[in-house]
Amino acid sequence: MVVGLVLVAGVIAATGFVLVGRSQTDAAKGDLQQIDTARSAEAQSTLAAAIQTAQLYFSEEGTFVGFTPEAATAREPSIAWNAGPATVNSVSIRGASDTGVALVTSTAPGTFACVAADGPAVTYGTQDAMAPSACTG
Fold first, then answer.
1. Whole-angstrom distance, CA of residue 35 vs CA of residue 65
2. pLDDT digits (tens, 9 = 90+) for 35-64
3. What are phi and psi for residue 96, nearest 5 degrees?
4. I want to staple 94 with a disulfide (CB 3.0 to 4.6 A). Which of 14, 102, 113, 132 is the partner?
5. Is 10's pLDDT higher than 90?
6. pTM strictly above 0.85
């Protein structure tokens, strides 16, 4: 009888530990989702400023050709610009043509946000877009 009571008490205690561990795991997942949401919001804000800079260049030059990191930095130095791979805290300029350009940033390794101007249309997406038409999602 005593052995049975000890076993029952042990099962109850173990269940309590499992529930505590599970609530801590759920809380950690929630924290990570908030971080991802904040990174995504920051990336979208940066991309909104970046596309305005690109459109300003287009209004001055009549083309996106020549919209390079150097030209972009001259107009908006608060953004880190590049022409290479998309990275966190940097905007990569892609596929600049007469009427279009794609701008891409990374929100975390393997996760991207993009904005593209293609003629008068501006689209936002979640792709590592190499051209305006690829900025989807």
1. 36
2. 556 667 889 999 999 999 999 999 999 999
3. -65, 125
4. 102
5. no
6. no
